[in-house]
Design a protein that fits this description.
Elements: H1 2-36, E1 42-44, E2 51-53, E3 57-58, H2 61-67, E4 75-76, H3 77-81, H4 97-101
Antiparallel strand pairs: 1-2, 3-4
Length: about 120
């Protein structure tokens, strides 16, 4: 009787732990997605000037160091990895093409601060 009862409690505990682990992993996944940001945010590629998803772009190192992650010029994957004229090819100069062309820095839409009146 005692062994069966112990086995049941061990099984119940393992189910609870598994459920907690699932919930924890799911929360982490949602947190990672929110940290990643840029869900459907569009930015302009500084080489081809197409509007592309922010997540599908790369930032030239020189521009990243100079302007930071939020303002730096962005290059789409097609322009970055193009075999003939791509930014990553060996014979291409690796300065930021957006800075060379004088294109304005990338801008993101920011929400205006909300003021809440708590007086009665």
């Amino acid at each position: 009787m005692q062994k069966k009862r112990r086995q049941k409690t061990i099984q119940q505990i393992s189910r609870i732990k598994t459920k907690k682990r699932y919930i924890k992993n799911n929360k982490n996944k949602k947190t990672r997605q929110s940290r990643k940001g840029g869900n459907n945010e569009k930015v302009k590629c500084c080489m081809c000037e197409k509007m592309v998803n922010k997540d599908d772009t790369f930032i030239p190192r020189a521009c990243l160091v100079k302007h930071g992650d939020k303002l730096a010029h962005r290059i789409c994957r097609d322009c970055w990895w193009n075999p003939e004229t791509g930014f990553a090819s060996e014979n291409t100069p690796h300065g930021c093409p957006g800075c060379i062309k004088g294109i304005p820095l990338t801008e993101f839409t920011r929400m205006a601060p909300v003021i809440v009146d708590l007086t009665l």
